[in-house]
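Still learning folds. Look over my entry:

…
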Amino acid sequence: MDKSETLINLGQKIRTIRLSKNMTQIELANKIGKDHPSINKLEKGKVNPSYIFLQEVAAGLELEINDLIK
Protein backbone atom coordinates (compact mmCIF):
# COMPACT_ATOMS: atom_id res chain seq x y z
CA MET A 1 0.00 0.00 0.00
CA ASP A 2 1.43 3.35 -0.95
CA LYS A 3 1.14 6.66 0.83
CA SER A 4 -1.61 8.11 -1.37
CA GLU A 5 -3.72 4.96 -1.02
CA THR A 6 -3.31 5.11 2.76
CA LEU A 7 -4.45 8.74 2.84
CA ILE A 8 -7.44 8.00 0.61
CA ASN A 9 -8.47 5.08 2.83
CA LEU A 10 -8.15 7.25 5.95
CA GLY A 11 -10.24 9.99 4.35
CA GLN A 12 -12.93 7.53 3.32
CA LYS A 13 -13.08 6.12 6.82
CA ILE A 14 -13.45 9.59 8.33
CA ARG A 15 -16.18 10.44 5.81
CA THR A 16 -18.06 7.20 6.52
CA ILE A 17 -17.95 7.80 10.27
CA ARG A 18 -18.97 11.45 9.88
CA LEU A 19 -21.93 10.52 7.70
CA SER A 20 -23.00 7.79 10.13
CA LYS A 21 -23.28 10.54 12.73
CA ASN A 22 -25.40 12.68 10.35
CA MET A 23 -22.78 15.41 10.40
CA THR A 24 -21.78 17.65 7.51
CA GLN A 25 -18.19 18.61 6.75
CA ILE A 26 -19.03 22.14 7.81
CA GLU A 27 -20.43 20.96 11.15
CA LEU A 28 -17.32 18.88 11.84
CA ALA A 29 -15.06 21.76 10.83
CA ASN A 30 -16.89 24.18 13.12
CA LYS A 31 -16.86 21.71 15.99
CA ILE A 32 -13.07 21.38 15.89
CA GLY A 33 -12.18 24.95 14.92
CA LYS A 34 -11.05 24.20 11.37
CA ASP A 35 -12.25 25.42 8.00
CA HIS A 36 -14.44 23.41 5.65
CA PRO A 37 -11.75 22.99 2.94
CA SER A 38 -9.45 21.32 5.48
CA ILE A 39 -12.02 18.62 6.17
CA ASN A 40 -12.79 18.25 2.47
CA LYS A 41 -9.12 17.75 1.59
CA LEU A 42 -8.68 15.29 4.46
CA GLU A 43 -11.62 13.19 3.34
CA LYS A 44 -10.36 13.16 -0.25
CA GLY A 45 -6.91 12.01 0.86
CA LYS A 46 -5.23 15.15 -0.43
CA VAL A 47 -3.41 16.00 2.79
CA ASN A 48 -1.17 14.10 5.16
CA PRO A 49 -2.70 15.15 8.48
CA SER A 50 -0.67 15.78 11.57
CA TYR A 51 -1.23 13.69 14.68
CA ILE A 52 -2.82 16.72 16.37
CA PHE A 53 -5.23 17.25 13.45
CA LEU A 54 -6.27 13.58 13.65
CA GLN A 55 -6.79 13.92 17.40
CA GLU A 56 -9.04 16.93 16.79
CA VAL A 57 -11.03 15.11 14.11
CA ALA A 58 -11.42 12.05 16.35
CA ALA A 59 -12.63 14.25 19.20
CA GLY A 60 -15.06 16.01 16.87
CA LEU A 61 -16.44 12.62 15.88
CA GLU A 62 -16.51 11.58 19.56
CA LEU A 63 -13.95 8.81 18.98
CA GLU A 64 -10.44 7.92 20.04
CA ILE A 65 -7.70 8.45 17.45
CA ASN A 66 -7.15 4.68 17.39
CA ASP A 67 -10.65 4.29 15.94
CA LEU A 68 -9.51 6.28 12.91
CA ILE A 69 -6.20 4.61 12.24
CA LYS A 70 -6.83 0.95 13.02
In short: The two ends are 15 Å apart (CA to CA). Helices lie at 3-20, 25-32, 36-43, 51-60, 65-69. The mean pLDDT is 95. The CA atoms of residues 58 and 67 lie 8 Å apart.
